[in-house]
Amino acid sequence: MGLKQSLHKMKMKYEGTKMAPAFNAIHTFLYLPNETTHNGTHIKAADDLKRTMNIVIMSLVPCLIFGIFNAGYQQNLQMDVVERAAGFLSTEFWNLENFSIGAWKVLPLVLVSYGVGLLIEFIFAVIKGHEVEEGYLVTGMLVPLIVPIDIPLWMLAVAVIFGVVIGKEVFGGTGMNILNPALTIRAFLFFAYPTKMSGDQIWVAGDLKNTLAGQPDVLTGETILGSLAQNKEVAFSLWDQFWGFIPGSVGETSTFLILIGALILVLSKIGSWRIMLSAIAGSLVMGLIFNGVVAQGWIGESSKFFALMNTEFWNHLLIGGLAFGIVYMATDPVSASQTNKGKWIYGFLIGFVSVTIRVFNPAYPEGVMLAILLMNVFAPTIDHYVVEGNIKKRAKRLKVKTA
Amino acid sequence: MSKDIKIKKGLAIRLKGEADKTLSNAPRSRTFAIRPSDLHLITPKMVVKEGAKVQAGDTLFYSKDNEAIKFSSPVSGTLTEIERGAKRVITKITIEGDQQDVFRDFGVKSPSSMDAAAIKDHLLVAGCWSFIMQRPYAVVANPEVMPKAIFVSGLNTGPLATDLDFALQGKEKELQAALSALAKLTEGSVHVTVAKNGNSPLAGMSDVVVHKTNTLHPAGNVGTQINKIDPINKGEVVWTIGAQDLVVIGELFVTGKYNAERVIALAGSSVKTPKYYRTRQGSEVATFVYDSGLTEENVRIISGGVLSGTTISPKQHLGFYDTAVTVIPEGDDYEFFGWNKPVFNKISTSRALTFSWLTPKKKFDLNTNTNGEHRAFVVTGGYEEVFPLDIYPLQILKACLVKDLDAMEALGMYEVAPEDFALTEFVCVSKQPHQQIIRDGLDLMYKEIG
Asked: What is the pLDDT of residues B14-44, one digit of tens each?
């Protein structure tokens, strides 16, 4: 085969040069390398990191496509171009008009995220002389899905640079980072440009600037969390919330598609079901506690926490980025707990802390990002105590013997 | 205190080219060789010079660190070459074999009438000590230390491995003699583990404790059995002996000869007629590999199994401890979009568009391709599924990589050998060399603490 041979020749030519990692990254994208085993096992299982990451990306694609349609839909809904979608397959939602508006907004985000991020990965790989690692393939897909639709592209680019360099490369690259890089990027955006990351003007695309007389300058659309935090009525039905026909970050709105993504991850044994399950349990428990507090009458309707605290405990999973965070962010194997027991604790605390922050921080009601980052920091500690249990057991065995 | 072991965490790797259960005598090899690299951490001190005539059982060299540990010639013949590498380290000792072996006579002895010291001396003088391994460190045992127990695995569960029930047939007398002798060398028991549904000649042995286990790999690894039966604590030593090495030890008592005969499985998908051969330690593998024939040109010949064996060329020789030779295709080719297309013809423990979980009984034809590039540890939770020891595999590997001796000790380094990490290495998504990492870690501990 012509391509295979000429690529092989080029690989030999570039071997040992500075640009070799960059070339290899492209080469190994096309072909599984001709590397063979040397010592140790002479055969290897079929999975490699590229395959693993590829599955995660595929599980994200439904969310991305939905996000594109939803971006257009939310705008058109406000402009009265379309009616409220009645069911998941409603043509008010899945139509070309929504798609074209959304694609123009979302695809640039994807391109900037991948372009900038991969460029930095390539630069670091060339400088440090290691292969280009696959970690960013997933991060680059996650980032456009967790930002508000109206974010300026330059802002995204700055955040990606910060996140990849400070969040990952300074620690030594994929596998060495402490924090989830995608969330580092989002946290940077949140703290550096707070006006562009919260409020009610960023969640629906449309910076219309007086194109039509009598139309508003900016389309506003609050997220459900935003409304609840201000003790306002929620304008969306539960089905809307489940299917995802609500304003929010690009890819996080559809609980239904996130559920499908979760199924892909769990069935392919790529994502940790332990973390997902325990995180859901954690958020339900905290939700129940708050519901209980309200039922006891300790918190009055005048309290600014009332609406969120009074939200049915299971409803927390449908709103905001909780479901998305649990399925795609908390399960990042590098920044999560690495022991099976630790995963249960880690996941539970993520759910628990997410809902806590959500209720007690009405200024920025989305707690899942901070909860996961917090638990990323504590994951090594959790692991430490889990492993300590094994060490103690071993020490005890010795004691019984010598006693 | 016989114990039934049930291993649930593990992986059955089914490969094509299993050896047919017919035993033939391999053609006599012209040269025989011992590679000191098979004898981990042993620095040989030669006692015979190039050109000397030796009998089977004559000492060729002893360990520089412990003169008592001797290594014997597997055949009678002329020592033709002592090959040296960098820093004059001996890399290979070659003997040109005689037509007919002449054995040095050590005298027929009955273990039951000997005491521990006499047995130990007898084994040391004849060179049979080289078969007794110890844990911690997975090296040849130190004869001065009394082990708390001795372990023998009576089954192989690895892919294409020698079927011990078949290979040990008719060796009951030798096995019993060896086990009776070993039983006197420990303060504890000799633990022998056999397959639950097998017909191992080892099942009926006396002077030992026989355990039964299921056959999910790595149930046959002696390390797994130790961990389940009587785990090693800090400061304790156990010995392990391969089942075929027991036969050699047994023959020393029964016939007075050091007869390093091996029944080896020649297996693998590249072998034309995979079957069993009776040959000798250190034989040129070409003698039986070409006797059976190969189906293709571009192959890898492995002395040992596919999980922990050593790559050799057909001109090279059977490893010191190896009881199998496996030949599989080399995988030095590119595969178009091999990283994302669905895979049906390779084994995987995930379901990431890999479908080996649909066909648990299917036999696979795997080659030596790594199926991806080496990466840092990323994915977690996969090792635990195939690792039955009560040890945290990822954590202990990382402790070895950063040379944290305290952590290595606390996490159970005294209990493991490289082969225990063969399955985690096989499934490793990041293609990390687990066995090498553990070996280096053990060597470091041996140097610093040992």
From this structure: 999 999 999 999 999 999 999 999 999 999 9
> How many domains does chain A contain in total?
1
Single residue among B97, B128, B147 that ends a domain in this structure: B97
Residue A303 belongs to domain spanning: 263-386
pLDDT digits (tens, 9 = 90+) for B52-111: 999 999 999 999 999 999 999 999 999 999 999 999 999 999 999 998 899 999 999 999
Residue range(s) defining the domain that contains residue B143: 107-255
A42/B328 CB distance under 8 A:
yes
Same-domain status, B247 and B127:
yes
Taking the alpha carbons at both ends of chain A, their separation in whole angstroms is 70
Dihedral angle over CA of A23, A29, A31, A36, nearest 10: 80
Of B235, B348, B422, the CB nearest to A47: B348
Give A-chain residues touching B340 at CB under 8 angstroms. 50-51, 54
User: What whole-number distance in Å separates Cα of residue B430 and Cα of residue B371?
Assistant: 10
Let me know if residue A326 belongs to a domain. yes
Chain A residues within an 8 Å CB radius of B412: 390, 394
**Which of B76, B97, B118 is the last residue in one of the domains?**
B97
User: Are residue B84 and residue B193 in the same domain, yes or no?
Assistant: no
pLDDT of amino acid A217: 52
Question: What is the interface size between A and B, counted as CB pairs within 8 Å?
Answer: 227
Residues of B whose CB is below 8 A from A11 = none
Contact B234 A398 (CB under 8 A): yes
ipTM: 0.89
Q: Are residues B178 and B246 in the same domain?
A: yes
Nearest residue in chain A measured CA to CA from B422: A41
Strands B261-267, B324-329: pairing is: parallel
Q: Could you give the 3-state DSSP secondary structure of residue A24?
A: helix
At B137, list the tokens.
């460190």
Contact criterion met (CB < 8 Å) for B370 and A174: no
